[in-house]
């Protein structure tokens, strides 16, 4: 080969390579707009705000890396026929040009995301300290094949349940009644189906869940431990969506139906299948929840329980009506119900008798909301709601010829007015007023001997709140400062509640966060006797009387630092919280303090650590560790000295791996925490008396808890408009026997019996769903 020919081939290959490289670096194939704007956000350090329907099905080419931001936006505008309005050097709003020409456009600044996949897809941490969950795009967590809202939040560091239920969620050492649960702005008093094993809120109609552990917005009153705010879709997009599915516990269906351009109906129905078919999952759930109840505990060998019937359901409905571009009305309805019936049969005087015992639990909620946009900067929202909770039990004891009726009812009516003013993209003000009237009644009725007690308390409260929020143009600094002033009419008492949230980004990949809050609460749950309400739902709601049942007050401060780079997140947060006004009866003591009334406080100090690494597009792992020290201080108990809290879990570790490849998702994880405190009988206990003599309260610990879970889902297309999903999960795959509670009783011969409540054993579940 001649030298001239060699040089010619070399130049030919060189320029061919350049052309190939340039074509790779500057692809002219159109891509989905959502993918392109994510690339541009990283490239130019900006944030795009948009309505999902505006960018849906839009495609564009990816602008060259060397073009300026303005030129890149012009390319996108030409390709998509959308308008890209630059608010400042940080925020860009995407608008439909046709809509902009015919209507006013209300710009809403969105909170900046610190971590988009906090644990898995659909879980996000924001720069105000809150964590959001979007069930619609939820990924997968170990042991879960469906986005159960209250099960999902237990994966967050500092949030756990010591007995595996969603009706006993402990956030930083608090009891479950200290959590504020809101469903579209309505306070809920029942959170679980199957008496706590399943969330009572259908995740497929829930658009967004926001969780605050500290630094709560001033508009939230009540809930001294946490806020769990569940929100349904609130915009009319004129798209029909529906779905249905089932698992080994329940079946459900939901639909989002446009009725006209201005109206939409959202509805869902879920019902258990447990009264039609007995599945392995139901058997494990039944064994777990009823193991320490009147249904399973029978001290008389001649009496048996049979013909048990259990079912649950929930119904949700939301009607959306856009009166004008600036006036919107929303109507909400929710009904959550659990129902249990069983027959107790016995032979008395050679005659067979059978009587029916039953337990029903229901939360009915309804509201109407009106939103008015006065201008692009000013909007108001007014809501009127009613939430009614009713727990009713009838218990027959054949051998004693006794019938016991118990009822606990809560009626909560409220009016809320919320005002938002966005001065500009950096400064906004939120304020408002809230009125609540809460009435709680408790009934006990015994026929032999005849006894009836009915107590009802009512508290009316007024609250005003205001807070200002500043976000720097480069979004590195964020400050939210506000407060809430509560007035309790019955006690003629004012309680101020300051709130603080501060976030500062530095060195590009670090962020420091400082949160603080004061909060108060007038509702709480107590336990009179461990076998109240058939021993299944032992807790009943009560109101503060500002005497032997004080208003609960909490103070909390926390400081954290977060590092996020190269898909590695390291987060550490230290906190201290003190809660005053707790009663011994609200803490569930099962020792020498079980029947003692006293008031006191608890103080918890702790640290939450999370390390999350996403290795590539389909594999990620995380490990979290929580340390806390939680102690009671009661006036008259334990000689006034500190004792460990009943929920004092010193160490908790969670580890998980998730993998998403094509349409298959898989998750495997392990949960471990140190044993919680309990009290054992003293070795010097006198067997001849009728009481148990105990050691020092909460001086012993249960065995450490260990559970491994796994889950997998497969998504597939059924038709062009329908897709399906199949999932399988196994809870406690090692079938480990975890003791979640131990207490002691005396039998008729004064012999001390040890009662051990076990966690769920190995529990499989499968699901199948169709989405349209």
From TrEMBL:
It is found in: Cell outer membrane. Residues 149-223 form the TonB-dependent receptor plug domain. One of its GO terms (cellular component) is cell outer membrane. Keywords: Cell outer membrane, Membrane, Receptor. Residues 30-93 form the Protein FecR C-terminal domain. SUPFAM superfamilies: Porins. InterPro entries: Beta-barrel_TonB_sf, FecR_C, Plug_dom. This is TonB-dependent receptor. It comes from Siansivirga zeaxanthinifaciens CC-SAMT-1.
């Amino acid at each position: 080969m001649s030298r001239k020919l060699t040089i010619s081939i070399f130049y030919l290959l060189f320029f061919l390579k350049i052309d190939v490289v340039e074509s790779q670096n500057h692809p002219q194939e159109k891509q989905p707009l959502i993918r392109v704007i994510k690339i541009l956000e990283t490239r130019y350090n900006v944030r795009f705000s948009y309505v999902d329907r505006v960018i849906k099905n839009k495609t564009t080419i990816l602008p060259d890396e060397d073009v300026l931001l303005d030129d890149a936006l012009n390319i996108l505008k030409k390709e998509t026929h959308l308008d890209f309005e630059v608010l400042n050097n940080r925020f860009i709003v995407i608008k439909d040009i046709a809509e902009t020409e015919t209507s006013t456009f209300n710009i809403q600044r969105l909170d900046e995301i610190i971590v988009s996949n906090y644990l898995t897809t659909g879980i996000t941490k924001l720069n105000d300290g809150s964590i959001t969950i979007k069930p619609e795009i939820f990924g997968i967590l170990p042991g879960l094949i469906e986005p159960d809202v209250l099960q999902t939040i237990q994966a967050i560091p500092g949030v756990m349940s010591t007995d595996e239920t969603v009706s006993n969620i402990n956030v930083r050492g608090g009891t479950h009644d200290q959590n504020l649960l809101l469903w579209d702005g309505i306070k809920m008093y029942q959170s679980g189906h199957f008496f706590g094993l399943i969330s009572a809120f259908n995740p497929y109609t829930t658009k967004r869940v926001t969780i605050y552990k500290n630094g709560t917005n001033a508009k939230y009153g009540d809930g001294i431990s946490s806020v769990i705010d569940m929100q349904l879709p609130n915009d009319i997009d004129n798209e029909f969506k529906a779905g249905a599915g089932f698992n080994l516990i329940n079946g459900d269906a939901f639909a989002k139906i446009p009725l006209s351009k201005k109206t939409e109906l959202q509805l869902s129905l879920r019902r258990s299948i447990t009264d039609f078919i007995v599945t392995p999952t139901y058997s494990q759930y039944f064994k777990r929840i009823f193991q320490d109840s009147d249904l399973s505990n029978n001290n008389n060998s001649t009496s048996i329980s049979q013909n048990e019937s259990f079912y649950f359901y929930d119904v949700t409905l939301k009607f959306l009506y856009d009166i004008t571009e600036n006036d919107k009305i929303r109507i909400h309805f929710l009904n959550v119900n659990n129902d249990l019936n069983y027959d107790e049969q016995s032979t008395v005087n050679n005659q067979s008798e059978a009587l029916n015992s039953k337990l029903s639990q229901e939360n009915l909620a309804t509201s109407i909301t009106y939103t008015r946009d006065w201008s692009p900067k000013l909007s108001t929202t007014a809501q009127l709601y009613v939430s009614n909770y009713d727990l009713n039990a009838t218990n027959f004891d054949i051998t004693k010829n006794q019938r016991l009726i118990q009822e606990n009812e809560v009626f909560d009516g409220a009016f809320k007015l919320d005002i938002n003013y966005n001065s500009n993209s950096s400064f906004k003000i939120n304020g408002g007023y809230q009125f609540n009237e809460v009435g709680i009644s408790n009934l006990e009725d015994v026929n032999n001997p005849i006894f009836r007690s009915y107590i009802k308390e009512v508290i009316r409260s007024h609250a005003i709140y205001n807070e200002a929020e500043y976000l720097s143009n480069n979004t590195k600094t964020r400050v939210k400062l506000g407060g809430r002033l509560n007035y309790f009419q019955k006690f003629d008492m004012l309680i101020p509640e300051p709130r603080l949230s501060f976030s500062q980004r530095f060195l590009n990949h670090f962020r420091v966060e400082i949160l603080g809050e004061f909060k108060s609460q007038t509702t709480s749950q107590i336990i009179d006797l461990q076998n109240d309400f058939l021993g299944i739902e032992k807790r009943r709601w009560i109101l503060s009387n500002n005497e032997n049942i004080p208003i609960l007050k909490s103070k909390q401060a926390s400081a954290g630092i977060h590092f996020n780079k190269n898909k590695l997140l390291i987060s550490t947060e230290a906190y201290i919280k003190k809660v005053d006004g707790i009663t011994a009866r609200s803490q569930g003591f099962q020792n020498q303090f079980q029947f003692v009334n006293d008031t006191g406080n608890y103080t918890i100090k702790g640290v939450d650590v999370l390390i999350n690494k996403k290795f590539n597009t389909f594999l990620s792992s995380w490990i979290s560790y929580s340390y806390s020290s939680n102690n009671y201080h009661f006036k008259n108990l334990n000689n006034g000295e500190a004792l460990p809290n009943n929920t004092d879990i010193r160490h908790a570790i969670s580890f998980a791996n998730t993998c998403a490849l094509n349409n298959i998702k898989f998750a495997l994880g392990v949960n471990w925490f140190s044993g919680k405190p309990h009290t054992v009988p003293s070795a010097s206990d006198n067997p001849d008396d009728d009481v148990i003599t105990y050691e020092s309260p909460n001086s012993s610990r249960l065995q450490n808890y260990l559970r491994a879970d796994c889950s997998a889902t497969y998504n597939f297309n059924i038709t062009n408009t329908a897709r399906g999903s199949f999932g399988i999960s196994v809870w406690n795959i090692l079938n480990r026997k975890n003791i979640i509670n131990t207490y002691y009783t005396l039998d008729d011969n004064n012999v001390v019996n040890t009662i051990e409540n076990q966690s769920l054993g190995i529990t499989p579940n499968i699901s199948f769903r169709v989405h349209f």
